[in-house]
Automatic annotation (TrEMBL):
Residues in ZP domain copies: 383-653
InterPro entries: ZP-C, ZP-C_dom, ZP-N, ZP_chr, ZP_dom
Keyword terms of this UniProt record: Disulfide bond, Glycoprotein
Lineage, broadest ranks: Eukaryota, Metazoa, Chordata, Craniata, Vertebrata
Organism field: Oncorhynchus mykiss
Alphabetized PROSITE patterns for the sequence: ZP_2 (PS51034)
Signal peptide residue numbers: none
Protein name: ZP domain-containing protein
Record has Disulfide bond as a keyword: yes
One Pfam family it belongs to: ZP-N
Amino acid sequence: MILFLSLHNSWLDIARQLLCSHHLHPFQMTHTSHLTPGLATQCGFSFKFDPMGIAMFFASLQNCFSQMYGYKMTAVVFSPSKKVMNVDEVQRKGYAIANTPTRLVLRSPHNAEETYLQNVAGVPMRVLSTSTFFEQKWLVTRVDATAVCPTPEAVVFTPEVITWYMPKHIDPLFSSDAFTMLEVYMGIDAKRLDTEEMAARNYSVLVTEAHIIVEIPVGAVGGYFKSHIQDDQYFVTYTIEPMLELLWIEEVAHEDTSYKVLFPITTPPMARPPQVRNLPPSVTGNCDQENFHITVDYRNQDPFFVVLVGKRLLNHELAQQYLTEGDADFTITLPFSSPDAVFESVHSSSVRSRLDVALLNPYNNMTIKYFSLACSFLKTLTECFSNGTMTALAVKVESAPGLNPGQLTLSDPACGPTYSDDRFAYFHFTVNSCGTTRKFINNVMLYENEISLPDELEVKLNATVSSEEEYQLKVSCYYVANTTRTLAFLTRPRDHEPFVETGTGRLMVRMRLAQDASYNTFHQEEDYPVVRYLRQPLHFEVELTTSSDPKVALVLDHCWATLNEDRDSRPRPSLYTGSCENPGDPYRVVFHPVVADARVHFPPHVKRFEVYMFSFAEDAGEPSGQVFVHCDVVICDASSPSGGPCSGQCVNQDNPKRGQRHVKDLFEERHLYVSSGYILWV
């Protein structure tokens, strides 16, 4: 039982920090002392063996052999006996007391004579109350403090579950009933666990009006079984050391109190027949173009293990996403770019990724089987475009664990990534910028750049992480200086017979991607590929550019998306189909009104719409992808609208003739096609 207090120069300014503990921080003694059990308790040391027989030694940072400074202490009062003792008497009875200019440390055995039991919200708690006096020349300071620790009676056992009850309002530590609980954390072996780790181990913490209730399954990860023989009968006990950390504030005193308790729990002996285990299960694996496939075969055995994938336990959520079960085996299928895998190396057209899988004994966390699978996956990291634009994807590798991809730059330190996270950095630049070099090799122009950390960050990183390797990734593009290209094209049946146009001239339509919702500025050809984040809005404008006829109206008949420039390629999810809107469509288009201004003289000649950036299902596991948007545009006679899109009538897009219109309609509407440029999502 240990009590920490913070002391200040005021009369009585106490910030209470309470710790009931068996295991504390490691400590290296500066001289040799014979550590008897009594001295260990008094001075803040403990010693035990783990389930594998490994000795573990624990020491408080405030132990007797660490140097203390402070005031002269003259007396201590222990309640309820109100017995007064000087410091020498306190130490002879097995207590420890020491101080620094800002901290008072009192240490007591759990069952010391001056401790007492108190029923708190129906839970027996062991209490130590003290008053400490500090003498100075013209001043005596008194510090009252109390430590409270749980007892074995706070735990209820069933063959399946351990339930630990902790009072929410620990009466001896409060000066009033009005308080607010700010934080409740659980841990094991003095290590705090997050919500995901608790769920993977099936731990639970429930906060009620009167109690904080901790439930731990018997046999859960973090504890261990121990065998016992009694009267020729085989028994097992299960031991685990949970931790609770609480933080509250009292509304009257306005003082924060942090309370931390480490509480070893051992179940009563449970009768169980001894179990004979076979050899470990077998683990095999292979890779395809995108995924790891790891199969665990536990044929003729119980699945007596938990699975660690990378650094995460395979919990229910991960299993639903990655695991396929058989009768006596299961297969984990994981994308090579998953956060659970690590990137070993990066090459110009491939990434070498590794997945580590371990089978652990749930009782003692010992490794039953370890398996590692590394494969090279084809991945285009650098793309070169005919308009002189380059894109590059930098990947964080295992040999540079301290690397922050967002700090990477091109040769020009002013050119950082367009997008980055904790594993990737994406760059988008032109060949005549960011320090890109050019040289000629016969009839080829070679453009090169390098992705790395700026020099000052590289020096800082290497100073903090001695094993860190320098990160350098060269990117290059080849362009043929003089070349002839052959283009292929396909014909398809026309939708209707030719007709005679009245009047002369050409109708031209263009689609542009606006830089924002104002539609004042637009991306130019040299801006492509344009980069957008997923779910970021895209603002398109479709405009009839060569007509000044106010009787003509532009209508969007059908808009869709493809993975490449071919508007007829598959897949091609529909974004908009005339008036046949689907309110449940995740790609639903939102139209914006168009009013006349200095640029737009005829609002019926312009359509503006917005759609959120999306990825195709085929690209779900990729860190980036591409999208092209296409629209089928109809030019209508606004003064005499016909059926179909000109009148707002829904047209069936599954019919290749788009609804069999009358010959008369063909003189009143014109079909044109427009497409966007290359849009990248990240």
